[in-house]
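User: Quick sanity check before I run a bigger batch. Here is a single chain. Can you write out its predicted 3D structure?
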Amino acid sequence: MIVITDTIAIPEDEIEERFIRAPGPGGQRVNKVETAVQLRFDAQRSSSLPPQVFARLRRLAGRRMTRDGVIVIAANRHRSQERNRQDARARLVELIRAATVTPKRRRPTRPSLASRRVRLEAKKRRGALKKTRGRVDRPD
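Assistant: Done. Predicted structure follows.
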């Protein structure tokens, strides 16, 4: 079980990991060892995610989530397979934790009477200043 929060935990069998060859320099063993990890998690069919968390997760994941609701995370920062595997899992946990946070609702407010008066006074002053500018008549 991968523990996300106190109430959410993902079973290991819902996560699929494939090991692929990592791009970039690697030395003598570059074409032999598959160190990069591609982690897949079917969030849409997961029984451990509440619907509201999944909805926020869909927005947060962006391109990392397919149309079918599968999150795909590729990890190839490290040279060892195990560290890439830990990195991919940590990134998945971080993404789901971010989706569990309920955003604060915005409460619409109105400007106060005093702030409206200050704004209008500033506009009047600015308008008066601009009115004094203009063409200068040359005496002939």
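The radius of gyration is 29 Å.

User: Great, the batch can go ahead then.
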